[in-house]
Design goal:
rod-shaped, 73 residues
C-alpha cells in the first residue's frame, strides 16, 4: 500500500510542477491532476477490498464441498 502512496506523492509533485510551468488552466495541468485522482481512487478501492476468510478461500478452491453449498428458500 505504501507503494501506491509513493506514486501519489510523485504524481502530485509532478502535477504541481506542470501547473506552475504551463498554467493552472492548461490541459496539461488538468491531465496531471487527473492522474493523481486516478491513483487516489485506486488506493481507496484497495482499502475497501477486504481479504477473504479461510472458508471463502476453501470454497473458491472446492466449490462442490458440502460446506460451500448455498440453499435458497
Amino acid at each position: 500500500m505504501s507503494n501506491i502512496q509513493d506514486q501519489i506523492e510523485q504524481e502530485r509533485d509532478q502535477a504541481r510542477a506542470v501547473c506552475d510551468t504551463k498554467g493552472a488552466g492548461s490541459g496539461e495541468c488538468a491531465a496531471a491532476w487527473d492522474a493523481v485522482e486516478e491513483l487516489q481512487a485506486e488506493a481507496s478501492h484497495q482499502r475497501d477490498t477486504k481479504p477473504k476468510n479461510s472458508l471463502e478461500r476453501y470454497c473458491d478452491a472446492n466449490p462442490g464441498a458440502d460446506e460451500c453449498r448455498v440453499y435458497e428458500e
